[in-house]
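Bumping with the actual sequence this time:
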Amino acid sequence: MHRYIGITLLSLAMLCGCSRTVLVAVPPRMDLRAYGTLGIVEFASNSSGAINARVTRQFQEQIQAAQPGTRFVELGSREALLASLGAKQLDSSALRKIGEKYAVDAMFLGEIAYSEPKTDVRINDLTKLDGAVRAEMRGDISSRLVETRTGASVWSSSAWAKRQIGGLSVSAEHGVSGSVRKSDPREEMVPALVYHLTQDFRPSSVRQPAK
């Protein structure tokens, strides 16, 4: 009996030893320390100027929170920036001029697009008048980091999010019920969109077996 208990305790000890793990830090996929100062052009969208400004501000905040000390120069909207250079498009020549004029090694460009509201109708049981209607909106965001000296794109990513605008459900048991979102779904999507877009700049951690 004592021998059996001893073997069991030894097996448990070996199992615990084999399954012991440690938390290992993982650096961000995109390290911005190689770039001294970064420019950022205001994000463009098919929404309002307030949305553009908010997305741009939160994008900077997320990156500087992930990599403290990152330096930004705000370059304004794309249209205003091109006008200040006397250029019509952001080609390699315009990028070099921006680098020289604003002393930035690379610059972020970004866009955000919101879909028109989409309605989804689901019928569970027509004979029992059981079904639902759901309306939602989708937002897509993308960005890239471009070197001003070479015009090369060194990072790009995209993300998307959805928000329900309203819904209506009908059933013989519960009758008719519905709801309509009073807040602007475009505004509500901004934090999630920016957070997922900037994932590559955040350090993370993984568990690995202890050596």
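The tokens above came from a reply further down the thread. The longest strand covers residues 153-171.
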